[in-house]
Write a structure and sequence with these properties.
alpha/beta; TIM Barrel; nine-stranded parallel β-sheet; two-stranded antiparallel ribbon; 15 helices; 12% strand
Length: 389
């Protein structure tokens, strides 16, 4: 295995795949696969938002094979997400999931695999288990591993959740981010819409207390049974505690957890992790992937990043704090969230290429062993829990 590759725990490769033309309609950026004028409008709107509010430049996504290769990204957890299902305007706020959402997820999986197979077989491959991962790394190909953002995709009852999660294991899915932007009767979430203050978000989108619902507990049980990692990112503090307590109470002591795209809470943003939650993740031998979003990483620090050197300093402060709280560097990784509507990104890290500078900085500031842990080894250790197909 290459010693200097990056394992990116959270990047939105499928985002640009989903806005391409297919048979006269847009691919999977439709709601439960209904093909028609409204769905074309949704896909057009998403492309417009991507070009102006997401991608570093119009029609220039960051998470492409070309940019991943240039950034020495060897493994990328490729995030599947159906935005118009989560925001389902045909339902009232906080409505339970619809069964059709899972079909959209399956379509995304097929589209991503076809895209990579047909266009990039010399440079990249979607892998579904450890054997395929090792072969990809040996061949110096970028290994994409499916991951899912939002437990709302998984079903509206325990029976469906069990069946669907088992299907996802066979598809090689490595983790599920259980909560996301809006409460859909799975788990309460932290505010994560940067242009809304946390207090405003909570007023507009109220949520119940307790964190996990019965459906949420069904999701956790199914993930554990299938050796799919539980991603705690986006969870409210109640959800974080409820999930970790649920694992403790059910004697699941050897189950690691992950916060794939997060940060230490230097300021007041609920999205970022507190000392208590960081230490509980570390106790389970989990990993915290540091996000490349300026909004979250600079909260509580000195202003926004104006140059790459500012971004490197921000990374150093988060790494130092997490290392202080956990007595080492074993639970720190990178989860960029590039192309995940985190614009503005940390300055100089708008594309994967910028992370080569981060690695060089960490090797110089700490040493090469610590840099390798943060960029590769901690994430690869975490992935040993993943069973795959």
């Amino acid at each position: 295995m290459q010693s200097r590759i990056l394992v990116d725990l959270h990047a939105h490769y499928p985002m640009h795949v989903g806005t391409r033309e297919r048979k006269g309609a847009r691919a999977w950026m439709t709601e439960t696969q209904r093909i028609g004028f409204a769905e074309k409008i949704r896909a057009w709107l998403l492309k417009l938002l991507n070009d102006h509010e997401n991608y570093p430049a119009p029609n220039e996504p960051a998470v492409t094979v070309r940019h991943l290769k240039a950034g020495d990204v060897g493994v990328v957890l490729s995030v599947l997400y159906a935005p118009f299902d989560e925001m389902d305007l045909s339902k009232k706020y906080a409505a339970p999931p619809e069964p059709g959402y899972f079909k959209d997820l399956q379509t995304q999986i097929a589209d991503v695999e076809q895209e990579v197979r047909n266009n990039y077989e010399d440079d990249a491959v979607v892998v579904h288990n450890h054997d395929e991962l090792e072969k990809a790394l040996s061949a110096r190909k970028i290994a994409l591993i499916h991951a899912i953002e939002g437990g709302f995709h998984l079903g509206d009852n325990e029976t469906e959740i069990k069946k669907n999660v088992n299907t996802l294991r066979k598809a090689g899915v490595a983790y599920v981010t259980v909560a996301h932007l809006f409460f859909r009767q799975i788990a309460t979430n932290a505010p994560a819409i940067p242009f809304l203050w946390d207090s405003v978000y909570k007023g507009l989108f109220p949520q119940p207390r307790g964190g996990l619902t019965d459906l949420g507990r069904a999701v956790i049980r199914a993930l554990v049974k299938n050796h799919i990692l539980i991603d705690l990112t986006h969870m409210s503090p109640d959800s974080l505690d409820a999930t970790l307590d649920f694992l403790d109470e059910n004697a699941e002591q050897n189950v690691p957890v992950v916060a794939t795209h997060s940060a230490y809470r230097f300021g007041n943003l609920e999205y970022n992790l507190t000392k208590r939650h960081i230490q509980r993740i570390a106790k389970r031998k989990g990993v915290i992937g540091l996000i490349a979003c300026d909004h979250y990483m600079t909260d509580g620090l000195r202003g926004n990043t104006k140059a790459l050197k500012d971004s490197l300093e921000v990374f150093r402060q988060h790494i130092n704090k997490i290392a202080e709280l956990t007595n080492g560097y074993d639970c720190i990784g990178i989860g960029s969230d590039l192309d995940g509507f985190i614009k503005p990104s940390l300055n100089g890290l708008e594309f994967p290429e910028g992370f080569k500078e981060v690695r060089a900085y960490l090797a110089e500031r700490y040493n090469d062993d610590i840099a390798d842990k943060i960029f590769r080894r901690n994430a690869m250790r975490l992935l040993s829990y993943w069973r795959g197909a």
